[in-house]
Specification:
- The structure is a homodimer.
- By secondary structure, chain A is an alpha+beta fold.
- Chain A folds into 2 domains: 77 residues, Arc Repressor Mutant, subunit A, CATH 1.10.10; 50 residues, 2-Layer Sandwich (Dna Ligase, domain 1), CATH 3.30.1490.
- Helices cover 35% and strands 22% of the residues of chain A.
- Chain A is built from 5 helices and 6 strands; from the N terminus they run ααααββββββα.
- Chain A is globular, with a radius of gyration of 17 Å.
- The first copy, chain A, starts with a helix and ends with a helix.
- Chains A and B meet through strand 6 of A and strand 6 of B.
- Strand 6 of chain A pairs antiparallel with strand 6 of chain B, so a sheet runs across the interface.
- The first copy, chain A, binds a DNA duplex through helix 4.
DNA sequence: ATCATTGCAAACACTTTGCATACGC
DNA sequence: GCGTATGCAAAGTGTTTGCAATGAT
């Protein structure tokens, strides 16, 4: 597997410790974290880390197309490493976001009603398998 | 067509002038406005209208399921009157949001990978027919 | 020494809350 | 007159910006 440092170098980003750890966090924790979740996940091992750096770095990675920034349902941006097209499912009970690898009607690059489609998102919302189990056990 | 006042009464909401005009605005302007757009669209004719009332009223309507609140792509809630399932297309040039009446794979009420789907959203992004035309004429 | 990166503090935008005033029956 | 609705001001989030201190070559 390609190292994080190499990915940064390929994108002409100097691999500072903050940048490496932030991208690593996104690669290793496929939880669609918010900027705040990234900050909280790293601040213990990097106590001087600032939220500003997290925001700036995530923004930089999105510009360089290393990460994708998504606003799925709520009023907050979530970041993900996975660039393959996939469906997002958000559980309304526990708040977890799942990636579903189901393929879906892909309008990308098609003309629909005269509009040129460049992105196609499918977002589902409901109750995840875990929360369904917990409900039954009540 | 059912009057706005009747819709409010049916939902046990007293039809104050603010509430009537806000719901009317949503029914007559299918532009998926933000709270701020609703405020700006009405404040001229109702100069004492406050944003708080707009926010409170929109929230009330969403709770009563008269309106739907959507976070489509950006970090802001947009409101719409149309309850029929449909596709949203956002133009990255002009920012307009279009409703597309295309039907789509409807996962609602299905179990997918063990998760119970209750909402299914399809969001497209690209360049709308209008902006495509303008580009060509350059 | 120079240029880029970091991180604090302040500013911002969107939204919610507390509470006093005004309205409607 | 009493309960509800309104709207100002303040607080609360998530995010961005200005800028000085720090770090890398």
């Amino acid at each position: 597997m390609e190292s994080i440092v190499e990915i940064l170098k390929q994108n002409k980003i100097s691999p500072s410790i903050q940048r490496v750890r932030i991208l690593e966090f996104l690669r290793d924790n496929r939880i669609h974290p918010t900027a705040d979740m990234v900050y909280k996940g790293l601040v213990d091992e990097m106590p001087t880390l600032s939220k500003t750096t997290v925001y700036n770095t995530l923004k930089l990675f999105v510009e360089k197309q290393i990460l994708v920034g998504l606003t799925l349902f709520e009023n907050e941006v979530r970041y993900e490493y996975n660039m393959e097209p996939h469906i997002h499912f958000k559980c309304t009970k526990c708040g977890k976001i799942y990636d579903l690898d189901r393929s879906f009607d892909f309008y990308k690059d098609e003309i629909i009603d005269g509009h040129k489609v460049e992105e196609h998102h499918v977002n589902l919302k409901g109750i995840c398998s875990n929360c369904l189990k917990t409900e039954k056990n009540k």
